[in-house]
Structure formats: C-alpha cells, structure tokens
Amino acid sequence: MRWAGLLVFIAAALGMAASCGGRLDTPCGSCPLGTLCSNGMCVPCGEPGQVCCTGQTALCNDSVCNGTECVPATVDASTFDHQDAPTLDEDNCVRACATAAVCCETCNVAGYSPAAMGAVTRTPGACSPTQIQAFVTACTLSTSTMATCQAFYMANMGTCDACTGTGLEAESKWGWAVCESSNGPCFLNEAGCTDIVLGEESLEKAAGGSGSCGDALNAFDGCQRYACQTCTNEADQAACAQDTEATGMTRQCAQYQAPVSSSTGPCAPLDGASAASSCSPDMNDQGSMIRFITLFCGLGP
Fold this sequence. Notes:
Layout: H1 9-12, E1 35-38, E2 41-44, E3 63-65, E4 70-72, E5 87-88, E6 94-95, E7 119-120, H2 129-140, H3 146-155, H4 159-163, E8 167-168, E9 173-174, E10 177-179, E11 186-188, H5 190-198, H6 213-227, H7 234-244, H8 254-261, H9 286-297
Parallel strand pairs: 7-9, 8-10
Antiparallel strand pairs: 1-2, 3-4, 5-6, 10-11
Helix pairs in contact: 2-3, 2-9, 5-6, 6-8
C-alpha cells in the first residue's frame, strides 16, 4: 500500500443495504409474481442489480428501474453500472459493490481527478540526526501526542521546524507530508520521495518536465486514497488499497497504476533502486520514518 493517514495534529501543532435473493428452485414456465425467467430458472426481480420485471417495474424494492434493471434510488439510474450494486454480507456489512474487499471501500472512482503534484522540496541539513529522531518520536508514531509534538516544535524553531512542518495539497511545493486541507487528512509525500531517490525532480510536471515517476505515483496514490478514504484502520486500508490494484477484484485504480508498472515509463528505474524502499515507510516504525524524513530534511541521499 502506497498511502497512509497521518496524525493530523502535526498540521495543527453507502448507500442502502440490499441483497440479491437466490434463485428459486422452479424451472421456467409460469414464474411467480415478482420473478422472471433467467437461464432456465425463475429468479427474484426488484433488487439492485437485478433485471426489471416486464410490466412490474414498481416491484423494484427500495430502488428504481432505469428501463432494464433495478438500481439504488440514490444513484443516477441512467448511468448506474450493475457491478456497483450495494450488497449485504453475513456480518450486515454494506459493501458498495459485490467485489469490494471491505465495507469502507468506494468502488466507483469516476469522481476522482488527480491533483497536480507540487514540486518536491527538501532542505538538506535542515535538521540534525538527533532532531530528526526527536521529531519522529514526538510527532509521527502511534505513541506521539499533541503535547509531545508541540514540545518538539517549541524546542526546535528555525530551519528544522520549517522543514518538518506539513503543507497543503493546493500549494506549488510539497515537502515530506501534504494535507488536503488545514484540518486534514494528510498523507506522506511518497511520490516526491521517489523522485528524490531516482533523481527525477527535473522531470516533474511542476518543474516543466514531461512527467516523473512521482507524478505517476501521485495519481495512483490519490486514486487509492479516494477509494479508501473512509477506511479508519490499517487492516481495512491495506485490504482496500490492494483491491484497487490491477491484481484486485474491483481494480478501480488500475488505469492509474499502469504508468507506474510500465517497464518503459518513468518508474521503470524503481526495479533497481533499493533506496526507493525508504519512500514507503511504516509510520509505526521509528527507523523507517527516520530514513524517510532524512531524505527531505537531513543529509541524505
């Protein structure tokens, strides 16, 4: 998974449930009211994702008929895709579509538009190794608190304070972490980190280039954040993100993953860049976060 939610205090310091009933054990002939013949069997009609019964469109239970199938009433009937029909699993978990890996996953990403990636900005030597370790401990780990983070900034005003602060997604330059708004959510600038490691900063669109690996990663990461934005724990985030990829069941972000996976694209050098592993840190691991922050505010690479 290439995205992660950040502790927002750093910046400060689905539809209905519906099930598509099973087939009736009755061969077609005269199907009962509320069913229709499909593949030689009488099947229920009237649920989202099912075909509307001819002359019985009123039987779309808690949904509407778009002329060919029943769709959720909250969805534009003229554009609904039957694969997006909400389903209800055995745990009463409402999933946005039948292939969704977790309840919090958004299957339809038609509303997503990649944000322009800000030019990666770093300040080598802004923080000493001791300051970077102190920052990670005080502000980025699961044990960090608002109080410990504020204490760090109070004690480290100056270049380190500026470099370790977060920026806004709408800004033209991005540091180590970026927030969608002043109130979050925030994410690690893994795309910018990758450009630093690969030496592709001059290729960034923000720098007038043709497009860097970071630009491609930013579009892909953004799609995953969009699809998984309501997932609140790491397990659900990981399952959701994996499902959005080309090897997943829903694959809603596969089009944005393709340029990242291309053997001839700007991300091709990733295969031989061992240092790139520093750009996908575990936020609960002090060592990996120290390596990540050092790329932006320390003396590396």
